[in-house]
Specification:
Layout: H1 12-39, E1 49-50, E2 57-58, H2 60-76, E3 81-84, E4 89-90, E5 96-104, H3 106-110, E6 117-124, E7 127-135, E8 140-145, E9 150-152, E10 155-157, E11 169-172, H4 178-191, E12 197-199, H5 204-212, E13 218-222, H6 226-238, E14 242-244, E15 255-259, H7 261-273
Parallel strand pairs: 3-5, 11-12, 11-13
Antiparallel strand pairs: 1-2, 3-4, 5-6, 6-7, 7-8, 8-9, 9-10, 13-15, 14-15
The structure holds L-MYO-inositol-1-phosphate (LIP).
Length: 274
């Protein structure tokens, strides 16, 4: 991998190479997951182990996909840190960190619903610099590198030009804990009359990519994990969407908003009033 620029930041060539590596890793995870999905007939054949709650599941293909991605990163960039949803926690010494969600939207994966994805991102220090989200059921590869824009299957994408919140299509999601779900649902009740409609797709990475290509005007969610949001947030931001927390400060997994520029401020006002 080409060295970073003299000031220690990643140069344009290195960013392009890292984006290509993210795409290769995400697609490899997708091929493993898709093969497992096709072998199974019903949902129960894929059910795996439970994690934070009885509905938070991981299948053997979540684990196999993560092992595939982590193995390649360890081979190609052995000094990088790696954080994976299924337990990988390599500390690293290089200053580069990889965020892996081998299957984001596992519930959809198990139920053979289409909104699931394979998410890979890499940061240099605290800055996310390259990312890819692959959606196997749609054969759609979303990708971005810092300052280089966002793409869908290699074609440049941009957030929507919607300016009227009442016409905005809004995506959101819910955590696995019943108490959190109640809080999230109560906020949604207060928001739903102010927007065109709501979609709960089931994968934060997909939601963020939907904002990046204008299929959603807004996405918001609380209590995501770093691996859920790492790639999709960079892709959304590089598409021209505005990404923040609920107060307008920089986006973070625990409090995520990604919105078309024309409705971001109005949506934050509606969020804060809800
Ligand atoms: C999912 C997120 C989604 C959220 C789900 C779940 P997982 O991640 O991508 O946005 O609403 O509750 O957390 O668990 O499928 O990797």
């Amino acid at each position: 991998m080409p060295p970073a620029d003299n000031d220690g930041t990643a140069g344009a060539d290195e960013l392009s190479a890292l984006r290509a590596m993210c795409e290769t890793l995400a697609r490899g995870a997708g091929e493993i997951a898709l093969a497992g999905r096709r072998e199974a007939i019903g949902a129960t054949e894929l059910a795996g182990t439970t994690k934070s709650s009885t509905t938070d599941i991981a299948t053997e293909f979540d684990e196999a996909a993560e092992a595939h991605v982590v193995g390649l990163i360890r081979d190609l960039r052995p000094d990088d840190a790696i954080i994976g949803e299924e337990g990988t926690a390599d500390p690293g010494t290089s200053g580069y960190s990889w965020y892996i969600d081998p299957i984001d939207g596992t519930t959809n994966y198990v139920y053979d619903q289409p909104a699931w994805s394979n998410s890979v991102a890499v940061a240099h220090g605290d800055e996310m610099i390259a990312a890819a989200v692959y959606v196997p059921p749609l054969d759609e590869m979303f990708a971005a590198a810092a300052g280089q824009g966002a793409t869908l299957n290699g074609r440049t994408i941009s957030a929507s030009d919607e300016t009227d919140l009442s016409l905005a299509l809004v995506g959101t999601g819910f955590g696995y804990q019943p108490s959190i779900r109640r809080e999230q649902a109560e906020r949604l009740v207060r928001l739903i009359t102010q927007v065109r409609d709501v979609r709960r797709l089931g994968s934060a990475a997909v939601d963020l990519c939907m904002v990046a290509c204008g299929r959603l005007d807004v996405y918001y969610e609380l209590y995501l994990n770093s691996w859920d949001a790492a790639a999709g947030e960079l892709i959304a931001r590089e598409s021209g969407a505005v990404t923040t927390d609920f107060t307008g400060a920089p986006a973070r997994p625990e409090e995520m908003v990604a919105a078309a520029p024309g409705v971001h401020a109005a949506f934050l006002e509606a969020l804060q009033a809800s």
